[in-house]
């Protein structure tokens, strides 16, 4: 798959500007259209004093103040996004999603993207953002989560793929192909292969490694036993030991009616991974 449309969630934080810069660089490399998605007030928490506003006049003043702050923040973010996009001569657009039920707009903005770039902190702390499982379930677009401590280093030179022979893992590998083919090294990590021996085949990891090699990726397979340790900890430890700058995982999940709840491995990686994580389902 070639990346031709990339969505990036933007905001007025320093992390937000780094995300714009990375997404713009990636779009330039791929010749992709870049969509900046700004959730109004997503970086602004409610102030304690907002809960004590009494009287029609005071309420109107509070709402007007909030609207002015939102518009100023949006204007600032738009200028940054447009300047960075223009500097790289990109085809781009800027979308604003208003407060008060942005779920459908978020999904629509993600639905037609080959990749959605979002910040780790936004997924966990800031109001106004859809949970990653909702975006994945509703849009099907792979999500690249950038950690809060990321220092604008390159992404995707040394990639770790968590492989468990599941449909979700296979989907993640396909969605990550543009990164995997371009990487200097791809490490395919197989944890506790004996638990799904029938899915892995005679040599766990060998078939998917051959699949990737045929696409031009440079792949190494590593099989490990967790010995009872959490699988997420094994993945994070391997990433640290090998200087990994991108983790690729399938979002294993448990369906609940129209919602989806991530498994423990996926959720822990999203919260704690010190490097970018590409998740797909």
TrEMBL record:
- Gene3D superfamilies with a match to the protein in the record: 3.40.50.12370
Instruction: Give residue ranges for domain UspA.
Output: 4-127, 158-281
| InterPro entries reported for this sequence | Universal_stress_UspA, UspA
Species assigned in the record: Bradyrhizobium lablabi
| Protein name per its UniProtKB record | Universal stress protein family protein
Coiled-coil ranges (or none): none
Pfam family membership, one: Usp
Q: Which domain of life is it from?
A: Bacteria
The family classification in the record reads:
Belongs to the universal stress protein A family.
């Amino acid at each position: 798959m070639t990346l031709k449309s990339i969505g990036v969630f933007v905001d007025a934080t320093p992390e937000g500007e780094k995300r714009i810069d990375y997404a713009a660089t990636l779009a330039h490399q791929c010749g992709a259209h870049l969509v900046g998605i700004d959730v109004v007030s997503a970086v602004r928490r409610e102030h304690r004093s907002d809960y004590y506003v009494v009287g029609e006049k005071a309420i109107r003043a509070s709402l007007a103040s909030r609207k002015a702050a939102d518009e100023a923040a949006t204007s600032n973010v738009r200028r940054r996004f447009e300047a960075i996009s223009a500097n790289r001569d990109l085809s781009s657009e800027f979308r604003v999603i208003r407060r008060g039920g942005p779920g459908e707009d978020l999904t629509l903005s993600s639905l037609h993207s080959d990749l959605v770039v979002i910040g780790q902190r936004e997924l966990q702390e800031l109001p106004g953002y859809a949970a990653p499982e909702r975006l994945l379930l509703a849009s099907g677009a792979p999500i690249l989560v950038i950690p809060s401590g990321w220092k604008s280093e390159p992404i995707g030179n040394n990639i770790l793929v968590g492989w468990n022979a599941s449909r979700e893992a296979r989907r993640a590998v396909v969605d990550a192909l543009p990164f995997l083919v371009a990487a200097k090294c791809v490490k395919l990590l197989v944890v506790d292969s004996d638990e799904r021996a029938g899915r892995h085949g005679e040599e766990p990891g060998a078939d998917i490694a051959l699949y990737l090699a045929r696409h031009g990726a440079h792949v190494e397979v590593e099989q490990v036993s967790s010995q009872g340790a959490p699988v997420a900890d094994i993945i994070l430890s391997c990433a640290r030991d090998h200087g990994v700058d991108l983790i690729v995982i399938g979002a294993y999940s448990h369906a609940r009616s129209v919602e989806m709840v991530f498994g423990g491995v996926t959720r822990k990686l999203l919260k704690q991974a010190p490097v970018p994580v590409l998740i797909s389902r």
